[in-house]
Every structure is written in structure tokens, then in C-alpha cells.
UniProtKB/TrEMBL annotation:
UniProt keyword terms in alphabetical order: Signal
UniProt protein name: Copper radical oxidase
Segments forming domain Galactose oxidase-like Early set: 473-581
Species: Lentinus tigrinus ALCF2SS1-6
Keyword Signal set for record: yes
Low complexity bias locations: 604-618
Domain Glyoxal oxidase N-terminal: 159-468
Alphabetized Pfam families for the sequence: Glyoxal_oxid_N, GO-like_E_set
Domain of life: Eukaryota
tRNA processing among keywords: no
Residues spanning the signal sequence: 1-24
Location of the region described as Disordered in the Swiss-Prot/TrEMBL record: 604-624
């Protein structure tokens, strides 16, 4: 398919998503049960072949994981050259190669507020062995035009209809930018645009002054400014893929090498916070990192968790010594940057770990998996490497962190079993709608390498099944397909079966929103989880209605764009449904006050005594809190279109 054709396909998909957004208040189809039954709990299962190696991966629709590799000699071909991108169908456990055109080597990515995914930056064109190609405009061994010039590649998936599920989606090149970015980080902003930070011109294990790009810019461009960052300018050589999160305060947390800052991108000013402690967390030390779930209980205050990495000082990032034998850090730290500028020690890992991803699970716990006990990210040809790998001693055992457990008891391996597949440099993981975790990738090599090497180029896809996986899943009815920032609450109904036969389980029910993010280099850019405010009415027949508030009226708390919603009863999540957060457009998001929720109530099931019973609030639905947020029912009338058109109906109308 030529590029003109691809643009036409894209234009059609865009028109479809615009039409769908007119039915903003429709509800999603009731989620069912996982197709997988009798899953091996706490274990990994090899389920499929990723076609290309999963250096980058993300969940784009309920059925599709998009995989992006660097240019290399993968055996699967597309348009006459090796493929380095793929669309993987979860229902088919296989898929098709895609043509991502330029060399996407160590690119960054995120999803915009309108449902379009970006893949930004990369490396120059290469030929066999990963060495510079003779032409930067395509042709040669791999036909891979230069990707370093910050090309933005765009792939539209939509929360409302899934144009990609008919395999019509392709990556298209949009704006070539003015600066080169290899290893940039992307973060979606509160208006649904994205900030693109950092990177270098030509790559390498770490950055250097002669090729540094310590700047940021916004896509789609507003004033076109490329703004110099103080912290990125002062953290060589370990300032690639800085760790960033949009905070509820509207500032961007920015962590690079040992330094930390808050960036106010509107005034283009940075404020220093305390230095990182114990270990470097950014690439190539590659600690795991995530924002902890934002909940009514913590007043939607962001706390960031960093685990593992490597404690090298800035002058030790040289490749003339045996890095692969050097112990990774076991340190975990937390910071709550809108409240405190300091890091605090958290429970350490049982062993040091570099390249361990932290994946938010819908039950509020955090799974750590992948990575190695010694060494760091990266590869090279020095004589101390393990067939190019800069890391050794893969950690096959996952481990689970409970943010709400008391200090000293947060990590657990109860009921968990190891994987059989080392996941070294260039691997990734993401949560899936069925609550399992997709794991793929590993390729610490300049090119495709499978023969006689310790850590081969991996295509095996695994699922990890958390302990809740085989439970009957709640099947909530009434989840809106679009959530606004404030406004009227909505009702979600659960049957007696959904409440495991006991209406009182409604007191231990939560509605959570998760953005699974863009996984690469031990980061899941954009990953975040928010528990909605709710109260409940338990009925005498054992069913219940959840009264669920919209998103907090602050888009910096959870940026606009597609996300999954799960209803979690006693720690057992429903299947995730895909919804759009916000207006579906890149724009200042409309906000309104949150509604006052009805007070929580459970009727005594056998007596029909509906005036008695338990008035206790569900978590986060304090009467005091609700009256504080009181007001403005129907303040966004344009969204109050009756919610009768289900997703499937809508699709069939089209
Ligand atoms: C989303 O916005 C980007 C940037 O303006 C644009 O390239 C893309 O086509 C938009 N997607 C949709 C579905 O409108
Ligand atoms: C949340 O806010 C309330 C009211 O301002 C306060 O009483 C409470 O301590 C806060 N909780 C946390 C965890 O910060
Ligand atoms: C590295 O870690 C291993 C395993 O925990 C430990 O036995 C060894 O003493 C550590 N080496 C150094 C130099 O700290
Ligand atoms: C991988 O390393 C081993 C051990 O050093 C060596 O014997 C082998 O030849 C290497 N493989 C390749 C493809 O170089
Ligand atoms: C939600 O359900 C309650 C009864 O449980 C009803 O009074 C209320 O009108 C419903 N609200 C909406 C927004 O549907
Ligand atoms: C209704 O609940 C109240 C308070 O718990 C109790 O005193 C009363 O006996 C109940 N009535 C019936 C018919 O169960
Ligand atoms: C529940 O709330 C109602 C109205 O506020 C009150 O009359 C009743 O006593 C409360 N019941 C319990 C068990 O607290
Ligand atoms: C309920 O309100 C009290 C104070 O009024 C506060 O301390 C507590 O954190 C609130 N609980 C929830 C779940 O919001
Ligand atoms: Cu890389």
C-alpha cells in the first residue's frame, strides 16, 4: 500500500471517530468473561509470536497490541524489506506486520487526547549489523529512512469505535521536526497534546555533549518553540528518556540522572526538587517507575514509585569495565512532588533489578516483572559483554507491590511462579483488558540474533495471570463511553452474581480508570490509574447500583484520551472496557463541578427493610467530601444525550 492510500484510510477513520463523538453519553457494551479459562494463576504462559521484537508496545484497542521494533533483519518482510512493526491481535494470538517507514529505534510514544497514538524520533537509517546505511532516504538492506529527525508517526485508534479492528490502520508520517531526538520521552498534556522531551542526535550507550538535545517541544506545535531545559542540560551523560509525569498541580515532574525538577511548561520555568537517592533510575540504569493509583482516599495526590536501577556516578558510565557483572540496585523510593520535594525510602526489592517494569493492575496492586539482577540496559561489542548484552542474570520471578500495605510488607511473591523467558534489554509489558499482563520483547543486539547467543532476539509473547484471573468477573451495566471532567454522576448496575452472592460486597467495590501507556525501555509512558468517587445502593434482591462520579474536574489529574474502565468487586476486576476521557479533541477540556452522590445504603437482603441497614460510605464517597464538591447538575447539557445507543448498535448504523 502506498503512502497516499494510507492517508485516505486514515482520513476515513478520523471521520468515523468524529461522528461517534456526537453520542457522547452512550454506554459501552456490557463486558463479559475472559475467553481464556482455567488460566495458570500467578504464572506466565507463552501464547503467541510478536512477528517483530517488542522494543516498544502498547494496547491500542481492546483486541490489538501494537508492537514497534528498531530496524533490523527480522525474518518477516513487508513491502520488500524486513518488518519492524506489527499489529498483534489478542483474540487470534497473532497478527500482521506493519510498515512504520522510518527507523523507530528507541523512539518514544503516547496517545493524544483525540485517540491518535504518536511514535516520535528514532535513529538514522541503518544496514545489516545496525551500521549506518549508505542512504538516509531509504533503499539499501532495510529500506529504512532516517527516523532520528524526530519524525512523528501517527496511528489512530479510537475509544468509541475501533477502526483498527478491521486491520485498516497504518502508521503515517506527519510532521518532520526541526531537531533530532533519539530516546525522547513523551507525556500527554491536560489539553490532549503531548510534550516531547530530550534525546540525542546519534545515540550510543549514554549521551554526550556533542550530540545532546536537552530541550522540549509540544505536539501538535503551538508556538513552535523548542525550549531548553535546565535539568536536561545539567545531567549528562545520563539524561536520555527522562522520567516524566503530569502532576495534578499541572506541573510536569522531570527526573534525569540524579536530579529532579518540576517543569511549568506554560511559563517555561523549572524548579529544582531534591536529588534522587540510592540509584539512577533513568535509562540505561533503567529502574522501574510508576505513579501510584490516584484515589479519593489520597485526595488524588500523586505519589511516584521508583524501584531498582543502578547506583553508578556520572563518571562511571563508560564501557571499559564489566558493567554486566555489576549488581543492580534493590532500592525503592517514593516521592509526592506536589507536597514534598524529598524522596523517602520504600521497602527494598528482594534482589537488585535493572529493567524491571512496574505494571498497574486493576486491583490497585503493582506487578514488577522483566529485567536482570546485574548490569544495565544497552548492548555493545566489548569483550566483557554476554554476546553484546550489558546485563546478565535475568530475573524470571515477578513480584507484586501493594501500595496500601504498611511499610515493611509491601512486596510479596505469594503464589507467583517464574517465567521461562529472560526479558532483557528492549522488552516491554502492558496490562490487557482481561486483567492479564502482556509481556514480550528482549533483544540486546545491534541486529536480529538468534544463533549461539545467550539472550536471543525474542518473539515469544507471554501472558501473566494475576490471582483474580479465573474468578467469575463482574459484568457491570451502564459504564459511559465518554467520561467528562466533572458533571452529573451515572449509575452502574451489578447483579447478585456480580457481587458474588452477597450484596454487602458492594462496600468493597471500586470503579477504576487505567491508561495502560506506551511501554519501552522499562517505562510505560503515560501509564496511570484513577479510582472514581462513588456511592452505592444495595437492593433487597442482592443486586446493587453504583452511583459513580465523573473524572475529577481537573484534566491534569488524568489527561484526556482513551483509557480502560474496570469495576472491581472484592479485588476481582470486570473485563476492562475502553472509554474516552474528555472531549475527544485536543483542546482546553470542559470542566464542571462533581455531582453530590446519593448516600450509600444497603438494604437488609432478607427482610426487605430498605430504610434500615448500612449507611456507610463507599471509599471516597464521604458525605463531607460530596457536599464539598456539591453542585451544578446538568452544567454540561450538551453531553446529556440519552445513553441508549450501545457501541454495537452504533457500529451497525455505520
Ligand atoms: C489527532 O490530532 C493529531 C494532531 O493534530 C492529528 O494528526 C490526528 O489526525 C488527530 N486524530 C484524529 C482522530 O482526529
Ligand atoms: C484529604 O483532604 C482532606 C480534606 O482536605 C484531609 O482531611 C485529608 O487529610 C486528606 N487526605 C490525604 C491522604 O491527604
Ligand atoms: C552482588 O549481589 C550478590 C547477590 O545478592 C551478592 O552475593 C554479592 O555480594 C554482591 N556483590 C557486591 C560487590 O556487592
Ligand atoms: C556468544 O558467547 C559465547 C561465550 O563467550 C561464545 O562462545 C559464542 O561464540 C558467542 N556467540 C556469538 C554468535 O558470537
Ligand atoms: C441513579 O439511580 C438512583 C436510584 O438508585 C436514581 O434515583 C437516580 O435518578 C439515578 N441517577 C441517574 C443519573 O441515572
Ligand atoms: C428494620 O431495620 C431496623 C434497624 O436495623 C430494625 O430495628 C427493624 O427491626 C427492621 N425491620 C424489619 C421488618 O426487619
Ligand atoms: C441511615 O440514614 C438515615 C437518614 O439519614 C437515618 O435515619 C438512619 O438512622 C441511618 N441508619 C443507620 C443504620 O445509620
Ligand atoms: C472521610 O472524611 C474524613 C474527615 O471528614 C476524612 O478524614 C477521611 O479521609 C474521609 N474518607 C474518605 C474515604 O474520603
Ligand atoms: Cu534502546
Amino acid at each position: 500500500m502506498d503512502r497516499t492510500h494510507r492517508r485516505n484510510v486514515r482520513a476515513a477513520a478520523m471521520a468515523l471517530s468524529l461522528f461517534a463523538s456526537a453520542f457522547a453519553q452512550s454506554t459501552v457494551t456490557k463486558p463479559g468473561q475472559p475467553s481464556k479459562t482455567n488460566a495458570p494463576l500467578g504464572q506466565f504462559e507463552i501464547v503467541g509470536d510478536s512477528i517483530v521484537s517488542a522494543q516498544q508496545l502498547f494496547l491500542g484497542t481492546l483486541d490489538k497490541v501494537y508492537i514497534v521494533d528498531k530496524t533490523e533483519g527480522n525474518p518477516t518482510k513487508i513491502n520488500g524489506h524486513p518488518a519492524w512493526a506489527a499489529e498483534y491481535s489478542l483474540s487470534k494470538n497473532g497478527g500482521r506486520p506493519m510498515d512504520i517507514v522510518t527507523n523507530s529505534f528507541c523512539a518514544g510514544g503516547t496517545v493524544l487526547g483525540n485517540g491518535t497514538w504518536l511514535n516520535v524520533g528514532g535513529n538514522q537509517a541503518v544496514k545489516v549489523g545496525g551500521v549506518q546505511a549508505d542512504s538516509q532516504n531509504g533503499g539499501g538492506d532495510y529500506d529504512d529512512p532516517d527516523g532520528g529527525n524526530s519524525y512523528v508517526q501517527r496511528l489512530t485508534t479510537s475509544a468509541l469505535i475501533n477502526p483498527c479492528d478491521d486491520e485498516s490502520c497504518e502508521w503515517v508520517i506527519t510532521t518532520p521536526m526541526t531537531t533530532r531526538r533519539w530516546y525522547p520521552t513523551l507525556e500527554t498534556l491536560e489539553d490532549g497534546s503531548a510534550i516531547i522531551l530530550g534525546g540525542c542526535d546519534w545515540g550510543g550507550y549514554v549521551n554526550s555533549a556533542d550530540q545532546d538535545n536537552p530541550t522540549w517541544e509540544i505536539f501538535p506545535p503551538t508556538d513552535g518553540d523548542v525550549v531548553k531545559s535546565d535539568i536536561l542540560s545539567s545531567t549528562l551523560p545520563v539524561n536520555l528518556y527522562p522520567l516524566t509525569w503530569m502532576l495534578p498541580s499541572g506541573k510536569i515532574f522531570l527526573q534525569s540522572n540524579w536530579k529532579t525538577a518540576l517543569l511549568d511548561y506554560k511559563t517555561k520555568k523549572e524548579t529544582a526538587l531534591d536529588d534522587m537517592i540510592d540509584a539512577v533510575r533513568v535509562y540505561p540504569a533503567s529502574g522501574g517507575s510508576t505513579m501510584l493509583p490516584l484515589t479519593p482516599d489520597n485526595n488524588y495526590t500523586a505519589t511516584l514509585l521508583f524501584c531498582g536501577g543502578s547506583n553508578l556516578q556520572s563518571d562511571q558510565w563508560k564501557t571499559n569495565w564489566d558493567i554486566a557483572a555489576y549488581n543492580a540496585s534493590d532500592s525503592c523510593v517514593r516521592i509526592t512532588p506536589d507536597e514534598s520535594s524529598s524522596y523517602v525510602e520504600d521497602d527494598p526489592l528482594p534482589e537488585g533489578r535493572s529493567m524491571g517494569n512496574l505494571i498497574l493492575l486493576p486491583n490497585g496492586k503493582i506487578l514488577m516483572l522483566n529485567g536482570a539482577q546485574t548490569g544495565t540496559a544497552g548492548y555493545g561489542t566489548e569483550d566483557w559483554t554476554l554476546n553484546e548484552s550489558y546485563a546478565d542474570n535475568p530475573i524470571l520471578m515477578p513480584i507484586i507491590y501493594d501500595p496500601s500495605a504498611e511499610k515493611g510488607k509491601r512486596w510479596s511473591r505469594d503464589g507467583l511462579s517464574p517465567s521461562t523467558v529472560p526479558r532483557m534489554y528492549h522488552s516491554g509489558a502492558t496490562l490487557l483488558p482481561d486483567g492479564s499482563v502482556f509481556v514480550s520483547g528482549s533483544n540486546p543486539h545491534a541486529d536480529y540474533a538468534v544463533k549461539n547467543v545467550k539472550f536471543p532476539t525474542e518473539y515469544r509473547v507471554e501472558h501473566f495471570y494475576p490471582s483474580y484471573f479465573n474468578e467469575r468477573r463482574p459484568e457491570p451495566v451502564g459504564i459511559l463511553s465518554t467520561l467528562s471532567y466533572g458533571g452529573d454522576y451515572f449509575n452502574v448496575t451489578l447483579t447478585k452474581d456480580d457481587l458474588f452472592g452477597d450484596v454487602n460486597n458492594v462496600k468493597n467495590t471500586k470503579v477504576v480508570v487505567i491508561r495502560t501507556g506506551f511501554s519501552t525501555h522499562t517505562m510505560n509512558m503515560g501509564q496511570r490509574m484513577l479510582e472514581l468517587q462513588m456511592s452505592y445502593t444495595g437492593n433487597t434482591d442482592g443486586s446493587a447500583t453504583l452511583h459513580v462520579n465523573q473524572m475529577p474536574p481537573n484534566p491534569s489529574t488524568f489527561q484526556p484520551g482513551p483509557a480502560l474502565v474496570f469495576v472491581v468487586v472484592n479485588g476481582v476486576p470486570s473485563m476492562g472496557v475502553q472509554v474516552m476521557i474528555g472531549s475527544g479533541k485536543i483542546e482546553a477540556q470542559p470542566t464542571a463541578k462533581l455531582a453530590t452522590l446519593p448516600s450509600s445504603q444497603v438494604a437488609a437482603a432478607s427482610s426487605g427493610n430498605s430504610t434500615s441497614g448500612d449507611n456507610s460510605s463507599a471509599q471516597g464517597s464521604n458525605d463531607s467530601k460530596n457536599s464539598a464538591a456539591a453542585g451544578l447538575f446538568g452544567s454540561i447539557p450538551s453531553l446529556l444525550v440519552a445513553g441508549l445507543l450501545s457501541l454495537s448498535l452504533l457500529s451497525s448504523l455505520l
